[in-house]
Amino acid sequence: MLIPASVRELIARGPLAHLTTINRDGSPQVTVVWVGIEDDEFVCAHMGVWKKVQNMQREPRVALSMLGHGTNTLGLQEYLVVYGRARITEGGGADLLQRLAYTYMDPTVVFPPEPIRSQPGYITHIMPERFSGTGPWSQAHG
Description:
Blueprint: H1 5-12, E1 17-22, E2 28-33, E3 36-38, E4 41-46, H2 51-58, E5 61-71, E6 77-90, H3 93-104, E7 122-134, H4 136-141
Antiparallel strand pairs: 1-2, 1-5, 3-4, 4-7, 5-6, 6-7
């Protein structure tokens, strides 16, 4: 599925995203992540095999939610929800965090710091299956 321009514009502004994964017992697990786009996948980085990474390795269904910057005709805050499937790749985590840090922190920051920076880390690639929420992305995709 192609990522619409309106979603790309939102991601370029660096919204914090809530990544929801599924725990082994079926309950939800939610964490806040930085998110970017590479090709037509959402990407986020992790420097360890945290609970969210373990969950996605076992069960790839995920959701990302984030606030938009505008309001709808009722005056409510725009928001985006991305439903998709995740795959985890090893390596490149620190490099992706550095690229995302330019948006999320400061254009001159060095992140993550050593000794974390020398670790390979992991990248989550999320292939979107559908978009929902309130904003220009919902008008284009129902």
